[in-house]
Amino acid sequence: MYRKILITTDGSAVSKHTACAGVNFAKQMGADVLVLYVAPEYQYPVYVEIIPPSYPSEEEYLAQMRRVGQEHLGSVLRAAQDAGLRCEGLTAFADAAALKIVEVAEQRQCDLIFMGSHGRSGWGQLLLGSVTNKVLSHTSKPVLVHRLITEPGT
Fold first, then answer.
1. What is the reported pLDDT for 54?
2. Which residues does the UniProt record annotate as the domain UspA (predicted)?
3. Which mean pLDDT values do the consecutive 10-residue runs of the chain (154 residues) have?
């Protein structure tokens, strides 16, 4: 049914558990996996006239965020490989994470977007996460929203 599933992660504990559930779902479907971490774009300081020496350059920032992305993607990619799935990880840069998720799903021809109901910025169990809600409203692709009943570690 699904040949390629986009699994998102923001690096939070909840997101990692959701991503692993996505890997299990992909295994059941026999689908390939693309794991995506969206990092914020580089921001120049407000006081652009004088950039403090300790402020990272754009190149330093991008390199650091790629390392962070690899850390966040690593456990999910290992789980996919252990499950015998073809998988790929991608760190993308955007200030609007939801729109980047939709864009990557289109560009990489994913059949399904698998994401958590809440991530790093979730409001407990009260509201659907803002990124998830925006993805749902901006894509015509199917989105499987995974909801953890209990927080990881409880």
1. 77
2. 1-145
3. 95 90 97 97 75 82 96 96 98 96 98 83 51 94 87 56
pLDDT at residue 153 in the model: 57
Residue type, 47: Y
pTM: 0.87
Residue 71 CB-density burial (10 A; 0-12 exposed, 13-18 middle, 19+ buried): exposed
All domains of the chain, ordered by start, with CATH?
A: 4-146 (3.40.50.620)
pLDDT of residue 13: 87
Could you give phi then psi for residue 87, rounded to 5 degrees? -145, 160
Amino acid letter, residue 70: Q
DSSP run (H or E) holding 13 = helix 13-29
Amino acid, single-letter form, for residue 107: Q
**Other beta carbons within 10 Å of 68:** 14
Handedness of CA 9, 10, 11, 13 (dihedral sign): negative
Give SS3 for 126.
Answer: coil
What amino acid occupies position 87?
C
